[in-house]
């Protein structure tokens, strides 16, 4: 996964691709309201930027396969990334470096079906 500096436009893109609630969840916010407060706090960005970038990369994987409409549902599907009891969105929310790769690889396999 390529992680760069997340900009406001990157956050807006994630919201546009996946919706505000799912983006807030992946970012780690307890609510959409909390997510809105985080968006105005540049210091908080470093805490959620990698997770949002990972979500954008997953959405882009679905978009390249002309399956963007399935991305949000796949992210919410428990076990879709091969981890029992965890959805890909939750894996991104709790992510470590290896987890991002696992979620992205799973998204690529799913979109090639």
Described by its quaternary structure, the protein is single chain
| Contiguous helical run count | 7
The largest sheet is: none
Percent in helix: 55-70%
Tally the beta strands: 0
| SSE series | HHHHHHH
Pick out the low-confidence regions.
1-5
Average pLDDT rating: 89
End-to-end Cα distance, whole Å, is 22 Å
Tell me what you see in this structure.
By secondary structure, this protein is mainly α. It has helices at 8-18, 20-27, 32-39, 42-64, 71-76, 88-93, 97-111. The chain is built from seven helices and no strands. The model is unreliable at 1-5 (pLDDT under 50). This is Antitoxin Xre/MbcA/ParS-like toxin-binding domain-containing protein. It comes from Dactylosporangium vinaceum.
Compile the SSE list and pairings:
Elements: H1 8-18, H2 20-27, H3 32-39, H4 42-64, H5 71-76, H6 88-93, H7 97-111
Helix pairs in contact: 1-2, 1-4, 2-3, 4-7
Keyphrases for this structure?
68% helix, disordered N terminus, mainly alpha, 0% strand, 113 residues
Provide a short characterization of the protein structure.
This is Antitoxin Xre/MbcA/ParS-like toxin-binding domain-containing protein. It contains seven helices and no strands.
């Amino acid at each position: 996964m390529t992680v760069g500096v997340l900009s406001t436009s990157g956050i807006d893109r994630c919201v546009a691709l996946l919706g505000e609630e799912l983006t807030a969840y992946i970012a780690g916010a307890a609510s959409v309201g909390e997510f809105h407060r985080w968006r105005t706090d540049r210091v908080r960005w470093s805490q959620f930027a990698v997770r949002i970038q990972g979500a954008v990369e997953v959405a882009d994987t679905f978009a390249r396969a002309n399956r963007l409409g399935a991305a949000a549902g796949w992210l919410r599907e428990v076990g879709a990334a091969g981890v029992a009891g965890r959805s890909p969105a939750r894996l991104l929310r709790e992510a470590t470096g290896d987890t991002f790769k696992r979620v992205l690889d799973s998204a690529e396999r799913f979109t090639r079906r």
